[in-house]
Design goal:
Four copies of one chain form a homotetramer. With about 300 residues, chain A is mostly helical. The first copy, chain A, contains twelve helices and no strands. Chain A is flat. Chain A starts with 7 loop residues before the first helix and ends in a 42-residue tail after the last helix. The interface between A and C is large, with 72 and 77 residues.
Chain lengths: ~300, ~300, ~300, ~300
């Protein structure tokens, strides 16, 4: 619908559902969060047979209630937004749909009921909701650091996958089906399990040569785990330092002094005329009022 | 009991039991530490059937001795402190109670005897006691670094848990009960086992798709372990640098020069003509007025 | 063949096959990359029995096509390069040969067919090809950091291997064949599995003493994983800082100001009276001559 | 034997055996290193039954040769050193003895033959020998960094062990013998396996509560692995920076300029009179000859 027909109540609704600056918006987010978590707990309990047998009806009914709530929310989201299609085709739009649809479909095809579990994906909304909370302050650094080292981490993961492919193929040739390395994809799965130091042990080399190669893979994996860590921690350190810098400047401008971690002007002269202090080391005149600064030295 | 009735002998007792500045206090802490460790070793040995059968009486008797000692300590702590209730309801108060009670209860309900093991929690006192030792110097940085990155690590763990929930649900749908993913909670347990690169292997994916998703989880887990490490090491580096800085400034103010971490000109000559100081190390003439700088060296 | 006979068409061919500056060269690299990946996917699918049975003919034919393509490439590489022997004996030369030969040999000895999988090694070319892509920018730091800490990481891995040997021998003596520690090499394999925190569990200590030593190994491995990480991240931080510095200097010289990583006064006012610049951000008067500084803002 | 009787040939011998500055000393070290590695390879091969059965005589004879060589070395070490007792009682002295004795004892008690494997401990000599090699340069930083964070890492490992004890006890109470948590020591072994993210899977929780607690332990272990890494990498960064600083100052004093990583004087003026450059940013006169520096700005 065009801008014209976009009515006031829609704007209000949008503010509540998508925004979080108004009390109503905040409330909506919190309630939504609780309902999402409740719905996931429900799905979990339902998946535990013993519990499901005991409380099947209760679980089923509350499931329906939540499904209806989600459906209403879904509809409200569609009618309140300016470009409904954009929302419907967006990642969150699809997730929201997937978290309601299966329940309805399960009326016709009971088999599909398990798909209700897909609403666990709604948990991702938690991030968007918590963005509003004080955690942002905590995670923004993190985000920038990770973003900054994204490309590097990509290269790294890329190398890991290639290594896994090559090692997997070699192990397939060396160990063969006898030891559970049935085919190359499975061997690659194994070498990822090994490179990442997870080591399930569902598949393990038995031939001496295989164990030797496995040892190499493990030591390699043990060694290269240092790489992403090094990257992130270096990037993060850089970010932190930059921030210190910015903070320092801010403080400087605000509190009218430039005492920072990196401060190099350490003299303690203060102007007799305007009491401004923290002058440059070689200042002869007050940077504030131009009054002469007698050297205390 | 009110401040009025709080008598002198209580103060003394308190000083010995809770303090560690007096020789008596130190001694008490050390003895306590030894008794705690002894009691835990006892519980361990007792839990080993073969040993328990051989030395049951000895173990039982020494258990009683320690229980009595702990009981006395517990009572002394109560009567020596000003606000007994505060201690009793405190974490350490409850732990201390839990480390004595089970033994007495086991007289009536033998089944509960195993709970004696709960006194392992008393080990936590070790931290409070060692706080007094030279390790503080070692762990204070650590503490501050961890505290500084607490919020960030929380966000991180939070993300890990959400990822585990989503992956767990997906794996439950993909693998199902056939491969041991009996229900969603168990699948979540599995994805935590995998994300953290622990990989017990008690449950492992068997379907190709499941193994593919598992590979993604592992690589993800392998990659994100870099995040907390990066955080802590960056925070820690910052702490260390700040310290260096403070030390430097102190030196600077004391020695009347601007030697900072970044300072490279460290000589203390000052021009007789214009009092300008902070000359280059090799300066022979004032960079300000061109006056000759007599070498103080 | 000597430089004399080296003809023009060869130069062209060489430019296309080995170079990547010309459109043709780029195209060749991209096509090659796709064919390599396709060939590996083929080998993977072939190794999965169920798939192989269904599409055996299709897989076999496409295998032959790729093998022929690789053979042609191999020949072209030989005739286009100035020193064919140097290429043939080079690592990539051998890999390229290994990726074609097995298929032909399998005509005579069908058993050797599996060796076709060796062409997975061709994946390594990906690195050379991607060198041309934007990832270089991302991985160059990485490369230098790793190179810088190469020697250190070598020492580290060396220590890990020695530790593994000693622990392996001890575990062999402690656990013996009963628990699967059949011989020393296998025990060493186990201790590498443990030190690197992979922990397959295909072999695990059962005697209390063995489990105690295993605990020591694990804690050691858990502790020392910090070492390579520390190295890389420190080296990497250093690299990053150096870069910042260089960038800063460049900027400084270029933009005629001394904005450095540590610079806090960033304004670019310069005094009309004495041309002194680098004033404090809030300066209203020249710190050098006291002349009024008109605000450029 | 006192200093008096300490004869010249002993000094020579000592120089060869313990020293490495003379060609003879270097040669001795290298030969020793080879023999040690050979002896360990022998022990390994011997431990592999199939190989032992084939080449038993050859292995046995070469074992005897090496044992005799080691015995001679041991005797030479004793007679060449000034304080024989000090060597005999030293760690290396005991190791050297343990690497020869078992073979002789096995003549009387064949059972003890396996103890020959103890000579793997001789590998530790490799460190002392390689100290002489170029690796020192690589590992000295490492050493200092680790030493600097020794206390901190100790505190950390200490915390890990306490955590393992408490979690182990709790898991023993929760899971009990049914799931393989037979006794507390074994549970502690399990929680170390889990905390260190090794995860053999030889023991794994089966009860929901147990799996929940296990999840907590894993996430904790996953989180705290950041701590030692953070420490080492921070300490290491500090070491590196200090070095840069020292190097910079050295360079400054030596090469008569102060261009360092931390350089803040970035102007490019050079004195017309004496061509000295790299003046302070605000220099008006050459710090070398006092000649006036015209401002290029």
């Amino acid at each position: 619908m065009g801008k014209k027909q976009y009515r006031n109540w829609q704007a209000k609704l949008h503010e509540v559902i998508y925004g979080a600056d108004t009390p109503a918006g905040k409330l909506f987010d919190v309630v939504l969060l609780i309902v999402i978590i409740a719905s996931i707990v429900l799905v979990m309990l339902e998946s535990v047979r013993s519990i499901d047998e005991k409380y099947h009806d209760f679980l089923n009914i509350s499931e329906w209630i939540i499904t209806v709530l989600f459906t209403i929310e879904y509809i409200l989201r569609i009618i309140s937004v300016k470009k409904p299609l954009k929302y419907i085709t967006s990642f969150y739009g699809i997730v929201d749909l997937l978290s309601t649809l299966p329940k309805y479909i399960s009326l016709i095809f009971p088999g599909t009921h398990a798909l209700v579990a897909l609403r666990a994906l709604r948990l991702l909304r938690v991030f968007r909701i918590l963005k509003l909370a004080r955690f942002l302050g905590a995670s923004i650094h993190l985000g920038t650091a990770i973003k900054a080292s994204r490309a590097k981490i990509f290269v790294f993961l890329f190398a890991v996958i290639i290594a896994a492919t090559i090692f997997g193929t070699i192990m397939y040739l060396v160990e063969g089906e006898a030891s559970g390395f049935d085919n190359i994809p499975k061997s690659i799965y194994w070498s990822i399990v090994t490179l990442t130091t997870v080591g399930f042990g569902d598949i393990a080399p038995v031939t001496p040569l295989g164990q030797f190669i496995a040892s190499l893979i493990m030591i390699l994996g043990y060694g290269i785990i240092a790489v992403p860590t090094g990257i992130v921690s270096a990037e993060y350190t850089r970010k932190v330092n930059m921030d210190n810098q910015l903070a320092a400047n801010a403080a400087a401008n605000a509190a009218h002094e430039t005492a920072t971690v990196n401060e190099v002007d350490l003299n303690t002269k203060s102007c007799r005329n305007c009491t401004a202090d923290n002058h440059k080391d070689k200042a002869e005149f007050c940077y504030k009022c131009g009054h002469y600064l007698p050297s205390k030295r």
